[in-house]
Batch of 2 targets.
Target 1
Amino acid sequence: LQPLEDGEIGLLAYFDLANASSISAILTGDLGWAANQRVMLLGRAPSAEARGCALAMDQFARAQTASAPRASIPGPLRFEFADLPVAAADRATSEVLDLAKVAANLRAALLVDLDRERIVRAVIEAVSRLKRRDHRRRRDAIEMIGRKVGISRQVLDASIDALLAPFHEEAIRAAASRLKLTGELIGFIMAGNVVGAGIHEVLLALICGAAVMAKSSSAEPYFLRALAETIARVDPEVANRIAVLSFTRERSDLSARLRALCEKMVVYGDDSTLEALHGSGLVGFGSKASGALVAAEALRADERRAAVGALARDVVLFEQRGCLSPSHVFVVGRREVSQRFSAALGAELEKTARGDFPPARLNLNLAAQIQAVREAARWRKIAGASLDLLEGGGLQWTIVSEPDARFIVSPGYRTVFVSAVEDVDDFKRRLLGFEGRIEGFSVADPKSELGGFVSYLRSIGVGWICPPGSAQSPPLMWPHGNGAFLGPLLLPETA
């Protein structure tokens, strides 16, 4: 989203210097290059909405560029899509095509008598190793993930530290004491937006004595494999109960086959992924978001720094890609209070970006989404809307402070919305329509005065309510998705 040299591929922007009656400049969602007084249209940017003339022009452009020789595009081509497949991530070979054989091996492993204590010890030791930043499999996974998705090693390390922090021996043994034993084969289709997403359910399944047949995401195929390989080093017999597969989401035939081979299926992803695999025996974790709630008392001089710093950390970890990353912060109090909070949060995000947690390398599509948030805020402010835009250089962070806004889902990458809220009834109005769609809320409430707010959050299905700074560390027995997976595994007396 900066001016490019002739011949470099980017978003096309048009400036009509003779226009006197309407819009004179347009940033499009079309990719192209300009050189030698020519403009070449290459089609829509990834995930850009096709509309207007682009519906026909995109088809035309694809036909033109498909037949044109590469040499016809002048100049250096330094543009790269961040989501191009990596060879190591797309191992759609014979090892995964014969899913029936994989399932048969897992069922054979279930016939080997393993007492729960042995499984628990293997899980405890494997997680303990993965918690160490110098553990080779963790280190290799982080390097590959960072290379593929552009997130810095510092952010990935801190994010995984937060994710694994609650998985200590006492918590794992406490979980085992509450869970049934089962001999099921459980299939998983993992998410790719957050490193380690789904590890709670995978570990619970193993502790229950089940076998796991997991299809990792092609966007992030490394961490789950690192977990399985670590378990194999600890106890090969326990590791025989987990198989990690890799194939692209386009192979719907393999996804359907995976489901048919398993007694239960756990699916992560957006709502379209769940719709493609609808039916009985399916536990789905679809599109959800999280927020934060800050009492005015948390912003007094002696409390402000800790509260704002902790919320900034919640935003930075996982680069705000997962369902537990706060999108929208509601500050209880007047508009002036939310404005002061926005300024403080912006300063903290700026300090974070310049310090220990460098921002992610954005691909063009992500950058365009964040730029769209900024431009929409600018134009709405010009039109008279009551809001303020705070932004870091180079799209490093963005805050839209709009006192009266309803809940807004962020595009991620340190993009936050901030609003003021008067009372519980006002808060309910702001969340209207998101009942059952919010996974977590960070609550800064030093004097415990927000009980009514918290009760309402629980009533609409928010399963993880925590102090700021803990959003990315839900416990092993976290009732993810209203306990859709955890609930049936609990012993009756502990449910």
Target 2
Amino acid sequence: MTPALATMIDSLTRLEAAAEELYRGQAALGLESAVREALVVRDLSGRILLWSKAAERLFGFEASEALGAQEEALLGAVWPDHARAELMTVGVWHGDLSQVDAERRPLVVRAQWVLHRDEAGRPAAVIAQYADMTSALRDANRLVRAIFDQTFNYIGLLDPQGILLEVNETAVRAAGVTSEQVINRPFWEAPWWSHSPELQERLREAIREAAGGRFMRFEALHPDPAGGLLWVDFTLKPVFDEQGRVEWLIPEGRDITERKRLEEALQQQFERRQELDRLKDSFLSAVSHELRTPLGSIKGYAEFLADEIAGPLNPQQMEFVRQLDRGVHRLEYLVDDLLDLARLEAGTFRLSLAEGDLAEQVREDVDALYPQACESRLRLEVQLPMEPVRLRMDGQRIGQVLTNLLQNAIKFTPAKGIIQVHVDREPGGVRCSVRDSGIGIPPEDLPILFQRFTQLESGRKKGCGTGLGLSICKAIVEAHGGEIGVESTLGKGSTFWFTLPDRPPAGLAP
């Protein structure tokens, strides 16, 4: 032993004595020791030169037994080859080692080695510190195992060839077997798969793919102990080592039987809903067409009476005829809406496109509703471009949109209010807006305004409308390749607007 090494060991011995004194003082006070690491010094051949009191407590060997012995033989340690190489190259190494104590019980210690060099800089000894991790590791393993076994999912561990190395209690309970019956056997032969050769082959292929580094996932039916079948969402995850090679495969299954049942029930409800919608559409279409014939007769005879073809009417009778005529018109609007809805649902809604002047269309629609506005004591204003607004459009359908928007404005604008219609050119198209000074729309109602059969509280109070008009307007405008919307402030009025392109995009409208 060189003088420098002897001095170093003497210094470490005094330090260990002071640490031991501190340890005893803490133990006397019932405190947990802050100095737990066992201190060992060995020469490069592995012969022990210093064995501390903490090493005695940790490993169970007295200093008289340990000094001069080979550490590796004494503690049954197997040191990793790379640990020696790292120590000699870097001068320090730390990691976990498996060792035994004096009674040959297994220990797991956390080690830190420091290389000591002599005066010439040559390696002379190794200073090692060891901390007992056995209890902590045992507790950690118990915790991991508890989590592993008690999780609701089915979890296992395979080698890359598909041999089952571990499986949790949830999985074996679901299959009605014990872990001993499935451990160390090919995974595809386990009872979860034995009912289906096709499923076994699918699993073998999944294991081959996962062993090549791919994450695999599919759904499968597994038998349960009661003789039924469970739907399982199955995954197979590869685990890689430090060199990037697949070391293990982790199979995991999650019981999705209840979800599958709900999906099946929802699918049945959806199909039933579709069938009911189809029957409803057929009924609406049939009823709408059947209503047209009696409506035509009622309208014709009402006109005969109004024209006094069958003889003069007194004022009260003439008022009855006017009421009859208004009722017929309301029914016509309802029938038209129902027919349009039936066409939309059936996918037979079509446009008849032709070149037209939107400004002229707006002027005609406003003129047609001018008497109704006057009767409601409203001012109706129109602002149109000086030049014709030429578009490719379905004039009748766009007139339907304008009429609906104007009629709504008249219904919901109090007497002495104002309704303004604007048509403005925009790049690539035109924007038409109907602005009123009416009651406005609550903000929470704006998102649902264009949905079918949606009628706001204000409309229900007035007892008018079917909740179809705006949804049909939306379908007409969008069939032209345009957009429709609304801006409103409660109590201050609303502005309904729609845009139309100069020409509908190809394929969007016939």
